[in-house]
Every structure is written in structure tokens, then in C-alpha cells.
Amino acid sequence: MSFEMIVVLILIAAMLAGLIFEVARPDMVIFSVLVILLLTDILTVDEALSGFSNEGMLTVALLFIVAGAVQKSGLIDQMMAKWLENSRTQTGTMLRFFVPTSAFSAFLNNTPIVVTFTPIIKNWCEKHGIAPSKFLIPLSYATILGGTITLMGTSTNLVVHGLLLDFGMEGFSLFTLAVVGVPAAVVGLIYLFTIGYKLLPDNKGFSQQIKEDSKEYIAEMQVTPDFDHLDKSVKDAGLRDLKGLYLIEIIRDTERISPVRSTTVIQNGDRLIFTGLISTIADLQRKKGLRLETGTNIDLDDLKNGTTSLVEAVVSDQSSLLTRSIKQSQFRSKYDAGVIAVHRNNERIQSKVGDIVLKPGDSLLLLAGADFVEKYQQSNDFFVVSSLDTPAALKQNPVKGWFSIIVLLALILTVTLGWLSMFKAMALAVVVFLGTKIITPQEAKQYVHFNVLLLIASALGVGVAMRKTGLAEWIAEVLLEFGEPLGLVAILFILYILTNVFTELITNSAAAVLMLPIGLEMAQTLGYDPMGFAVVIAIAASASFITPIGYQTNLIVYGPGGYKFTDYVKVGLPLSILVMLTAVLIIYNVWF
């Protein structure tokens, strides 16, 4: 091994450790490695920036906009909600809902699909007395399976396609992966409808648990005339930084003040509504002029009014809120919303709300302004997975909604017939959406997840360093030395498993970028069609079922379903094995 190879290997090992132990956001970890490669002259400026001009990465950016424009109309959501309402049996519901969901995921970004359908599923489950946990992991898995069917089904496929083009190869057609994706999706869905369903836990949802135990979350105190801080602000009255308690609302006659700001003035007769560690309410009782209302009739539903709403949101793995406490992140002032409770690993965190350091997958129950959902549904900090009472955001008129769907179908047709490349078709669709005012430039900007693009572009640069230094070739030789005596099928399984393990531990796009150069080196050494190796890596990088952190959709349903980490292993491991067997055997017979 050369000195440069050793340096790149050490940096990649450090990068993997940083991603696994969540020392920073994934995009920042990988970007930091890219900067080091640039500073050490292992990469030139052009090589380091090559990922930012990669066709696959740019196509992902356009895909975000196209998917956002189609889903903005709400037509798909409405159709699926009505379709779901006609279902009666659990198995029938899964068939009716998850088969179309997989089909939608083949052509739309699966992250907004899961965010949109999570509250629809939860409401249906609660209405029919079924645990949402029986449906939310299957929702995530169904979208992942659907994403393996087409080139535009997931960002991973587009990234692999872009890399293949960079290597001077043909790349994928729209339905190249369907040969594997369709059988894998069918096998996966059959498993979920039968064995997988039985393995799923029977948990109540987070919001459901809190509603049923609202007395443990909510306390009320009355302000009497002898309160020492009448007509003073909340901060001056000493009600801002309480030990384990959080003032979320003030009820004044018929007026309801929420979220409560530090400048809000306390008046005689105010009813102060607190959440947090209710067991510490005794500390407040020591304040003269505050009387505990032991028979309070306030519960979570009573907090809802015309100006506020109860919202459930899941912290994303790309969030700027990570590694800091809620208080340090200035959550209340930043989002104009108060955190009522935080839920992690099927349990409410029993500590002062402001001191909780958030992690990816945490569920937050928020008391927020009525426009919170509309303002932050595209936020990179969290996924808004339910608005328990907010009036539905104003939808586009049906004509614009149907027009956006027709544009998507035309895009699919032009790519399928080979008239335009995926990138050109996506670019044309975005221009049409902007020109016809289906979306505004500001909305288009909101739809694009820039941190995901930074992650992909940075990972592509790291991939260039692996090829340039010969590290990819060296790793390929080591793997072949072990696998070649076992035959080609064994080599394909080794490649699939290694890619899949990386996907579960880091991110799907990064795993694909790291493994594709290795796979292509193996194909060249063995003299086989490199396209078969590329398909193995694309499918393996997308098929993330075993951990909640491997794929964004798994993370989105983590909190709302009340799941534990082990639930993903128990349900996802058999599914992962089934998809691997299906994929490798089909690829072996089609491409070799």
C-alpha cells in the first residue's frame, strides 16, 4: 500500500466512526473528510468538486422539486385517505394501502410520502382500535421496496447512475432495476402481510399515550391577588427557568396565550398551564400567590384553540437541533412553538424539557401556532408527522393538481421511450412547474434538501480519492482473494452484504458511492459485465430494513410507532435476507 492509500483508508475509517457515533451531522462529517483530502493534495480542486457537478447528484436535486410539486396538490393524499376509509380488515387494508404506496414510491421521493401518509395511517388505526405500530414500519418498508423499481425511485439509484456515466458507461435506463425491484417488492410485501405483521409490536402511538395519561403531563396553577409578581413579565416572575417544569399556556378569561413568551405579563386570575416533571410542582406551590388546581379539567385536547395546535414532529438525522439541549437551541423563539414532551425508544424522557439533548428519531409533542405545519413541513430539522388539530393547509385547485400529475406521467413516458435523459426530463418538468406557477421559486428552494446534496457530492469526492489512490482496487483484490474460490454467486453475496452493512451504519448514498468503485474493479478483474455489479450495489444500498438510522423513512416512523431499535432487527432482518436472496439470484441469471 502507498502512503496516500493509507491516508485515505484512515480517513474513511474515521469517517465511518464519525457517522456511526453521530459526532456531527452526516453531511458535515463527509464534507470534512473531503476538505482534508483537498488540503493534503490527495485531490485537486477539480477532483474535490467533481461530485457537485455529477449528473446523478443534480438529478436528485431536481427530483426533490418534481416530487414536491406533485405532492403539493394533495390529490394523492386525498385519494389514499378515501381508499383507506373503505378498508375493513387489517390484511385487506395492508393490501389496499401498501401496494399503491410502493407504486407511488417508484416515481416519487419516498420521504415526503411517509411523512404525508403517517398521520393518515395513525388516524385510521386509532379509529379502528388498531395499534399504529402494526402499520408504520410496513409503510416505511413498502416505500423502500417501491424505490428499488425505477431509476427515479430513490436518490441512491440516481447517484449510482451518475457515477456510471462519470466512468464512461451507459448508466441505468428508467426500468433497468425493475427486473430485480419488482420481484423483490412482491416478495417483501408478501412477507410483511404475513410473517412480518405478526412480528410487529402492539404499541400505542406517542400522541395516544400522552392523551391517555395527560394528567401526568399537565398541571394548572391559579394566580391570586397576593402574587408578588403581578403585572410583571414571565421572566421577572421567575416562571421561565423552572426546575423540570415548562409554562406552555396562560388562560385569561376567554383568551388563551400560547406559546408563552418571556415578555408575557402575568395578571391576577391567570390560569397557568405547565408541563414537564409534574412531580416537581411542589416547588411552585412555595411561591406566594400561586394555587394548585388539583381538580383541573385541562387536558391536551383543551390546549387546542383557533391559534394553537398540537403537532407531533420527529427530529431528523440532518437536524441543526442535534447535540444541543432544547433550551440551548432556543427552540421556542426559533419555531414559535413549545415542547410539551419528548419521546425516545417508546418511553417519555423523564427530565426537564429544556435540558433534553435531542437525538435523531426523537418524537416531539409541540404546542405550536396554527401555521406551524405549513411553515415547517419542508424543514430539514424535523419531519412533521401529525397535526392533531390544525386545519388542513390550503390545497391547490384540482386542475393544477391533475396538471402536475400529467407532467410527471409525461416525464416518465419521455424517459422510457428514450426521447430525453432523466436529467433533461426532470429539468424540463421543473421549468414547466415554475412557468405555470404550480410552484413558486421559493417553494422549489424549500423542496430541495441541500444537506442531502452536500452529503452526496462530498461522498462522490471521497469515492474519487479511493479510485485515484488505488484504494478501491486494493480492497477489491482483498475481497476477490477471499471470494473467488467460492464462485461468482458468493462474490455477489459478499458485495451485497458489505454494501448493506454500510447502508445500515452510515447512509444509503454514501454506502453506494464507497462500494461502487470497488464493485467495478471486481468486475474488471473477473472480466464480467460491470452493470450486474452496479445493480447489486444499487439494490443493496437501498434495501435498509434492519436499523432506524439506515434510511430516513425508517427514522420518520421510529417515534410515532413507539418502536424500539430491536423491533427493526426482528422484522427487518428476515426481510433483508429475503430481498438479498431474490436480488442476487435474479442478477446472477440476468447479467451473468
UniProtKB/TrEMBL annotation:
GO terms for cellular component: plasma membrane. It is found in: Membrane. Its main location: membrane. GO terms for molecular function: monoatomic cation transmembrane transporter activity. InterPro entries: Cit_transptr-like_dom, DASS-Related_Transporters, Na/sul_symport_CS, RCK_C, RCK_C_sf. Keywords: Membrane, Repeat, Transmembrane, Transmembrane helix, Transport. Gene3D superfamilies: Regulator of K+ conductance, C-terminal domain (3.30.70.1450). One of its GO terms (biological process) is potassium ion transport. It comes from the Bacteria. Residues 206-290, 298-382 form the RCK C-terminal domain. Pfam families: CitMHS (PF03600), TrkA_C (PF02080). The keyword Transport applies. The chain crosses the membrane at residues 6-21, 28-45, 57-76, 97-121, 141-160, 172-193, 402-435, 447-466, 486-519, 531-551, 571-591. The keyword Mitochondrion does not apply. It is a multi-pass membrane protein. This is Potassium transporter TrkA. It comes from Lentibacillus amyloliquefaciens.
